[in-house]
Amino acid sequence: MKQLLKLLTLKNILISVLLLFLDAVLYIFLGLYMMKYDDFYQESEGEYWSLASMTIDEKIAYIALNGLGILNLCVIGYLIYKIIAYFIKRKNTNLQYLDFPKDN
């Protein structure tokens, strides 16, 4: 419990909120920038959503948007891993100490 209270300091909460806010702002910015591609797409430039039909700045925004999604999934996976590891380490929730009913 003391470890959990150390994580829930005002500083850590503010940093987390700031990172979530910056992530959302970056995601919105990249999404709005990709709307430019939708608005000015021409079939003569290539297949829709192919990198061949995008300008260099649209390619950067497209790759950054996908990279941001992958990064967010990795962070969520890491947080889930840490939460599970925390509960497994606790004495009362460790599965080897639980008393399961025996089969007859």
Commentary on this structure:
- This protein has 104 residues and is mostly helical.
- The protein has one domain (2-94).
- The protein has three helices and no strands.
- The longest helix is centred in the C-terminal third of the chain and has 34 residues, at 56-89.
- The model has no long low-confidence stretch (mean pLDDT 86).
What descriptive keywords fit this protein?
elongated, 0% strand, mainly alpha, 68% helix, 104 residues
Taking the sheet with the most strands, its summary is:
none
Q: What is the assembly state of the chains in this entry?
A: single chain
Number of strands: 0
Low-confidence stretches: none
Q: Approximately how much helix is present in the residues?
A: 55-70%
Approximate shape:
elongated
**Span between termini:** 39 Å
By secondary-structure content and strand pairing, the structural class works out as mainly alpha
Short recap of the structure:
This protein is 68% helix and 0% strand.
Which SSEs are present, and which pair or pack?
Elements (H helix, E strand, L loop, with lengths): L1 H6 L2 H31 L15 H34 L15
